[in-house]
Amino acid sequence: MSTDYITSPIVQISDMVKEFPTGDGAFRALDGVSIQVDQGEMVAIMGPSGSGKSTLMTLIGLLDTPTSGRYILDGEDVSSLSRLEQARVRNRKLGFVFQNFNLLPRLSAVQNVELPLVYGRVDSRQRRAQASAALEAVGLGAKLHNLPNTLSGGQKQRVAIARALVHNPAIILADEPTGALDTRTGAEIMALFRELNREQGRTIIVVTHDPEIGRHMDRVIGLRDGRLAENILSEYYGVEVFERVEREHGLEPVPVPVRRQGEASRI
Ligand SMILES: Nc1ncnc2c1ncn2[C@@H]1O[C@H](COP(=O)(O)OP(=O)(O)OP(=O)(O)O)[C@@H](O)[C@H]1O
Ligand SMILES: [Mg+2]
């Protein structure tokens, strides 16, 4: 492996198992998953409905605890921390974006974006300045004082992204961030994630069902029945069909981002 490109792992998960209690015994939603995500990567988690994508995101996000397995986040073994200590790490290092935006309806855009800083005990003037800057960075500098119900779906998701960014987290986690948006608006939101990734070096992990999004990521982590699945894009989503159509019709192929050194050997 080449040494001129040094990446450092930010998420290292080994042998993660998650079981949920059910009426007839435990249901194993994740069955021994090991993944690594490097700093500055933009990766998708993809797979059929029920394959464990949201479960895995919840564990990466320290929103739930695994049944077993080890998790090293940004060099720190977080599996052995108490729930309170995990919450502190979560508030400091992680930013979340959800399918349904999860904005507080009575707070303006800028007040919604300030929330992670309230928990972080930043003083109010600085809070407002940081939140305004984050909204400007997502192209919403003119909508600081709008209530969520006066914003379009795409604008609401931009507010949610600004809120996920405002405390400068190490990783942004997004579970189907384009699921409630039309195709064009969804593409704009993905372009914004890519810009944040390229220009600010953000590490971004996105759950998506959209193969068009998946093929534009640095890498796809495939899941099937709670286990890692290689080639999920072609085997489940049939992406080679798109590529064949592009070739046959002489269409400009959609550029796939340059892959990093050592890429193929991971997962
Ligand atoms: N709290 C729970 N109790 C019992 N079973 C659960 C629970 N949460 C998830 N599961 C089960 O675990 C499996 C994985 O669920 P998960 O939500 O991670 O799927 P997913 O890949 O995100 O699916 P989708 O694409 O539909 O969002 C499913 O079979 C689900 O029914
Ligand atoms: Mg899900």
CATH architecture: 3-Layer(aba) Sandwich
Overall 3D shape? globular
Compute the gyration radius: what is it?
19 Å
Spell out which ligands are present.
adenosine-5'-triphosphate, magnesium ion
**What is the CATH class designation?**
Alpha Beta
Helices and strands, in N-to-C order? EEEHEEHEHHHEHEHEEHH
User: CATH topology, which one?
Assistant: Rossmann fold
Fold and architecture overview:
With 267 residues, the protein is α/β, with parallel strands linked by helices. The chain has a single domain (9-265), classed as Rossmann fold, CATH 3.40.50. Helices cover 35% and strands 24% of the residues. Strands 6-7-8-3-9-10 form a six-stranded mixed sheet, sandwiched between helices. A four-stranded antiparallel sheet has the order 2-1-4-5, with helices on one face. The protein is globular, with a radius of gyration of 19 Å. The model is unreliable at 256-267 (pLDDT under 50). The structure holds adenosine-5'-triphosphate and magnesium ion (MG). Magnesium ion binds at residues 53-54.
